[in-house]
Amino acid sequence: MSYPVTLIPGDGIGPEVSKAARRAVDATGVKINWEIAELNPEVIRSTGQSLPPHVIDSLEKTCVGLKGPVTTPIGEGYTSVNVALRKRLDLFANVRPVRSLPGVVTRFQDVKIDMVIFRENTEDLYSGLEHEVVKDVVTSLKVITRVASSRIAEYAFKFAADAGRKKVTAIHKANIMKLADGLFLRCAREVAAKYPQIEYKELIVDNAAMQLVIRPEQFDVLLLPNLYGDIVSDLAAGLVGGLGIVPGANMGENHAVFEAVHGSAPDIAGKGIANPTAMILSSVLMLIHLKELSAAMRLQAAVETVYANQKHLTRDLGGTASTEEFTDAVVAQL
Ligand code: ATP
Question: Residue 92 region, left (φ>0) first, then alpha (ψ -120 to 50), else beta?
């Protein structure tokens, strides 16, 4: 049996790290029928759309995507590709597991960080509802709904229960945004009440940022609205070694798109030095979604062994290996 998957290489370092992830997945022996869908600034400009039909048709058919970073041309009126994709396929949950990897030198060497971030993906300040009231006076609407808040809370708690996690922390600023973040919290509390076995905590986002830096090991599952989720995810990535190693998943009822947290990193694009770990670990999440658990565990273990050996680290983590050398080492482990 082979699984159809839409592979969007993207731009910048996207094609390099996507190639690495594809090699790693193929090396697990799981048969994937890769459908390549090109999406980058040139394709966006030539089709006049952030999400041209060939991309959306493929994802609607395969229901599973592995996506490299795509740069949306700025100042030309295009909607962000990621925002458009999340809205169009209703990918309401952004899930980012942030874990310490063996052999990666960080400021948090002696603590084991193992948290999973659940970020609401469809609303909040990302609704794009901005308005110039009069010249030089602008409003930007933060939209929070019961439907979306309850849905992400349910998703996070169900994951926590299924994965045997102990604690969910909802992050908010309800002391200031009493109505908007207040509603988000009410929904989180209602869902928490259905899971008495899981400890539920709330933290104001500024305090959460400080706690994450001071004692990151106290966090287990984090539940956040869209904007705080975006910022806290990058902060958390920094705790374990940076953007090069943190994977992500955008999950909906019917579709799932897996992608690294990092962007297209134009400064290192085309040099063959990007760290493909985030993209490879995103494909581990994809294998779990496809219920290929043994392949997922083998690929995760292969990456961890390469890190533990410390011989093939890429430059962002103090090594000298190229994207290809790192990938060769992972494939050799498999
Ligand atoms: P975007 O706005 O598209 O998210 P960005 O410019 O904010 O992008 P990234 O492109 O994610 O941020 O990268 C920021 C910096 O982190 C890059 O310039 C690059 O130096 C480094 N970086 C990101 N991803 C990787 C990677 N996979 N390997 C090595 N370095 C990386």
Answer: alpha
Task: Print the domain residue range for 10.
Answer: 1-104+242-334
| Residue of 173, 200, 228, 316 marked active site | 173
Q: Which of 214, 240, 266 is the last residue of a domain?
A: 240
The active-site residue, picked from 26, 114, 234, 328, is: 234
Residue 236 shares a structural domain with residue 128: yes
Q: Are 86 and 249 in contact (CB under 8 A)?
A: no
Reading the block at residue 96, the tokens are: 């980012």
Which tokens belong to 50? 């952030």
CB of 225 closer than 8 Å to CB of 124? yes
**Do 98 and 117 touch, CB atoms closer than 8 A?**
yes
Quick one: angle between helices 180-193 and 146-162, nearest 10? 40
Confidence of residue 276 (pLDDT cuts 50, 70, 90): very high
CATH code: domain of residue 61: 3.40.718.10
Residues with Cβ within 8 Å of 228's Cβ and at least 6 positions away in sequence, in order, are 119, 171, 172, 173, 205, 208
Residues 233 and 121 in one domain: yes
Give residue 194's pLDDT: 98
- Helix (H/G/I), strand (E/B), else coil: 273: coil
Both 263 and 334 in one domain: the answer is yes
- Residues sharing a CB contact under 8 Å with residue 146, sequence separation 6 or more, in sequence order: 183, 187
Closest among 181, 180, 171 to 223, alpha carbons compared: 171
Q: Which residue has the tokens 């045997």?
A: 164
Residue 17 Cα: closest atom of ligand 1: 27
Output the pLDDT for position 103.
86
Mean pLDDT, rounded, of the chain: 96
Q: Whose CA is nearest to atom 17 of ligand 1?
A: 265
The preferred substitution site among 19, 74, 104, 262 for testing ligand 1, maximizing ligand atoms within 8 Å of CB, is: 262
What's the gap in Å between 248 CA and the centre of ligand 1?
Answer: 15
Q: Between 1 and 320, where is the model more confident?
A: 320
Measured in Å, residue 261 CA sits from the centre of ligand 1 at 9
